[in-house]
Task: structure prediction
Amino acid sequence: MRTDDRFEDLVVSLGGFYRTWYVYVGLELGLLQSIRDAGLNGITAAELARRTSTEPGLIGDWARGADAHDLVRIDDGRLTVTDDVAQVLLDADRPEYLGGQFLHAATGSLDYAQLLDVFRTGTPVAKRPDRYRASIERLTVQDIAVFFQEVLASVPDLVVDLKPGARILDVHCGGGRWLIAMARRFPGTQLVGVEFEPDSVSRARANVASAVLTDRIAIEHGAVDAIGHTGQFDLAYFQYALHQLPDAPAPLRSAWDAIHPGGWLVALDWYMPSDPDELRTRHGELIAGVQLDELIQGTRLASRIEALGWFEAAGISTPALIDLPSGATAIVARR
Ligand SMILES: C[S@@+](CC[C@H](N)C(=O)[O-])C[C@H]1O[C@@H](n2cnc3c(N)ncnc32)[C@H](O)[C@@H]1O
Result:
């Protein structure tokens, strides 16, 4: 690449860093949602500030910056947002939803003061703050949309089995959002979530209570290599979790034991491409960024080959590996 072109290429990345923070402010303060709600007529910065209880002068500055970053448009002093931006940043039920990824990237980077020490010493940060796990709950909203629209479309027999009375297990349930979405999508099912972080257990129980689903969803606080409930579940599910465990085959074995014959095990994750050409793509750039966020805490995204090795080590033979349109991958096995 010519130096000028390389300069342009790298400037785009630097601009992208600031763009992330414009998105973060726009999402967290409800600015983008309010602009969308205003529709085609748009809204002035002063009215936007009034509706979102923010400081009018600074909202004017945010608006000009967001316009520069092509997130909003200012015409005759009125702000609008295009459908494509609104859909990708605000519509959590779409597989293309990136709002949660922006929030998570910004929140995760608050811990990066320790990044250099981690690379120098090889010692990861001892514990991420509670705000980090709360942001995972928002990040993985996208995975729920991927599960409903891409995984279930690829495994129609699973949908048939999730009839009233079916039992569903979420291993590492985090804040319980997937369980709540499943309970609503599959009426009459009974669900259990296992989670070991105390703050995530509390958030999951609070989320289940405010969804008025305590009669159908139980959150168990514990480690996942001894789940118990032998032979009870029609589906056991791992979402964005297996790669974070020091010994992934152990919880896989434990989840497999908890499924009855004919039941399903599904692990949905984002894998590190082994093929350099797959890594040298926009998707690869994003995955490499997520990897940085894993490395700081002493975990790492796995490759698909490593993941299949965990299934083999757990004695789960010939799982199907399904690469999904979103870039996520589901590994599916039937007992
Ligand atoms: C990236 S989060 C994913 C959470 C959730 N599945 C979601 O999609 O929102 C990984 C989860 O694994 C949990 N976890 C890690 N080790 C665990 C263990 N030994 N037992 C149970 N949960 C564990 C963490 O607390 C965290 O909630």
